[in-house]
Structure formats: structure tokens, C-alpha cells
Design a protein that fits this description.
mainly beta, 1 helix, Jelly Rolls
Length: 331
């Protein structure tokens, strides 16, 4: 379990009734004592998002004549954090996929990177995850920023008052998320997360456009930002835990005595099997056929065209199918 706040003060006054005032201070900016920010160069990351689908939002939801946000493209949101970003616009969405499903491990499981140029100019986003690629579940979030005065387009907010919203930290530092926060979502498998959705928070306090956190608080962040780079600027999503480092894969995949080497493999894979097979299939962890080797191709297989990840090797003979496994790497 992680402690997300530094200070919690409770004051109780009793006179016929009582009042409870709670002031929570969450993790501070990068480089500050107690910060949860994770540097993009940290060795804790084992993978990065490999695919991105965009649903751009308007530059200014209150003036649709400006059109949609346009800075960056889908490729800007994948791979390692590098400050090459894609802007979502007001209420814009990015859906990220991964070569290997994420899983709930010890501590934080992934981190989301934005490109803020300071510790206080923070454009925020909700984070949601899915295990079936269709149904998404949102992380609980908190925003304690005042909501009486609109934070301007170049205004500032205090990271200490923000929790579980992407965009809390400056460029180069990811906001971490823990899948155990969603362990009670009965229709979500937190040990097989295939997609992550980033949803821009419209920082307006105007009732026509505002967004709330999980507690009903209005989320006030810099708005409007009437530029092509409007809204949350997605840099990357770094993976800390996936099924490769948290799960005994033999528990859910039946594996025969097919020997493959080297394993992990990069370009060439050798199989210790009978040579008279009908075909060999390579099936990714999502159950999709990625490659087929026809009969008579020998026992040395070129896998350079496979994406990085975990594969089931399915060997078909006349009267049986045998299975093995291999991890494809790129180095």
C-alpha cells in the first residue's frame, strides 16, 4: 500500500453537533521529499506503449470554431518518454495498447508522462484501464484546487493538492498508478490490462464544461488554452509490471515439452522437435496469430519480424498439436 499524502490534519469541534475539517497534502513535485514522480530513465520501466488511437477534442470547448487540437500524432504517444507529445484537446482521448498485458504487481504498475515545463503549470487527465479492450474503469482521483476562480490558460496549480490524475508532474517524470486501486471492479482483470485510456480534463469551472474528481470536487486547471497544443499533452506510458514479471505463465497456459533456444530470442529461434510438422504457429498473448511457418521449413526459424513480447509456439502434427513458449526481445 502506498501513502499518497504527506500531511493529514483532523480538527473536531463539538457543540450540539460536530464539524470535521480534513486538509490532505498529497505527494509534492519531482525532486521534493515525498514525491512519487518517476524519472523516464529509471530502470524500473520494462516496456512502453506500442500503439495509440486518438479521439481529438476541440481546442476550446466553449468556442468550437477554433477546431480540434492538432499538435503531434499517434506516434508521439508511444515508445519511451522523449518530450515528443500528442495534444488531446478539451475532453480528448488517447487509447494506448501494449505488446504484453500489464498486471498488478508490488507497488506502482505504470506511469503516465506529460510535458509540463514547470512544477505548477499542470494540464491534467483522467486515467482508465481495460482488460477486454471494450470496458474501461477509471482510477479514483482527487483535486483540492479552489474552484471559486478560474485558473487561467497560463495559470498555476499546486501538485500537493492533486492525486491520481495524469499530468501532476513536469516533463520527464511520470505520474505512477497502482492497479490495486481497481481490485474491487468485478468485471476488470487487473492482472491482464490490455489498454489504457487517457481522457483530458476540461479545467473549466463553468458548469457547462466542468469535470469532477471522484469526490465531486470541480477540477480547476489551466483553461482555456486556445492553441493547437490544447489540452493534455501525452508523452508516453511506461510499464512497471506486466504478466512477464508478475505471473507464473504456466499457471494459465498448458505447455508441452517443446524446447526452443535461445529463450529469450531476438532474430533466430531453434526448435528441438520432430521435423515432419504440418505447420508452426506463433500466437501472441492476446490469442492472435502472429506468424505461421509452413511444413518443410526446418527447425531454425527467423522471428525477426515478430514484435517484442510473449508467444505460444503451436506445432501441428498429423494427429496432435504440441505447444511451447518463447519470449521475443529486440536486443
Amino acid at each position: 500500500m502506498k501513502i499518497r499524502f504527506k500531511y493529514l490534519t483532523v480538527t473536531l469541534f463539538t457543540l450540539l453537533s460536530f464539524t470535521i475539517n480534513i486538509i490532505a497534502q498529497y505527494a509534492p513535485p519531482a525532486y521534493k521529499d515525498g514525491s512519487t514522480a518517476i524519472n523516464a530513465d529509471s530502470s524500473i520501466f520494462i516496456d512502453w506503449a506500442s500503439d495509440c488511437i486518438l479521439e481529438r477534442g476541440p481546442i476550446d470547448i466553449s468556442n468550437l470554431s477554433y477546431g480540434l487540437a492538432s499538435h503531434g500524432d499517434e506516434s508521439s504517444g508511444i515508445g519511451k518518454a522523449d518530450n515528443n507529445v500528442v495534444s488531446l484537446g478539451d475532453n480528448g482521448i488517447a487509447i494506448l495498447s501494449f505488446s504484453t498485458p500489464l498486471a498488478n504487481g508490488d507497488g506502482w504498475d505504470f506511469a503516465v508522462f506529460e510535458n509540463s515545463f514547470s512544477d505548477s503549470f499542470l494540464e491534467l487527465a483522467f486515467v482508465e484501464v481495460s482488460s477486454n479492450g471494450i470496458d474501461f474503469y477509471r482510477f479514483p482521483s482527487t483535486s483540492l484546487t479552489q474552484d471559486s476562480t478560474q485558473v487561467g490558460g497560463f495559470g498555476e496549480i499546486d501538485a500537493n493538492k492533486i492525486d491520481n490524475l495524469a499530468g501532476k508532474y513536469r516533463m520527464g517524470f511520470g505520474v505512477p498508478f497502482d492497479l490495486s486501486d481497481l481490485e474491487y471492479e468485478v468485471n476488470l482483470n487487473i492482472n491482464s490490462i490490455t489498454k489504457i485510456k487517457i481522457v483530458d480534463v476540461v479545467g473549466s469551472i463553468n458548469p457547462s464544461y466542468l469535470n469532477h474528481d471522484s469526490h465531486g470536487n470541480i477540477i480547476n486547471d489551466p483553461w482555456p488554452t486556445p492553441f493547437e497544443s490544447s489540452g493534455f499533452d501525452l508523452d508516453a506510458i511506461g510499464v512497471i509490471n506486466n504478466i512477464m514479471n508478475t505471473t507464473n505463465l504456466d499457471e494459465f497456459i498448458e505447455v508441452d515439452n517443446i524446447i526452443s533456444y535461445p529463450n529469450p530470442a531476438t532474430n533466430i529461434l531453434h526448435l528441438n522437435i520432430e521435423a515432419n510438422y504440418d505447420y508452426i504457429n506463433f500466437i501472441n498473448i492476446q490469442g492472435q496469430l502472429s506468424k505461421t511457418i509452413p511444413s518443410g521449413s526446418g527447425l531454425t526459424i527467423d522471428i525477426s519480424d515478430l514484435a517484442r513480447g510473449y508467444y505460444i509456439i503451436e506445432v501441428k502434427y498429423f494427429n496432435k498439436i504440441s505447444k511451447g513458449r518463447v519470449i521475443k526481445t529486440i536486443w
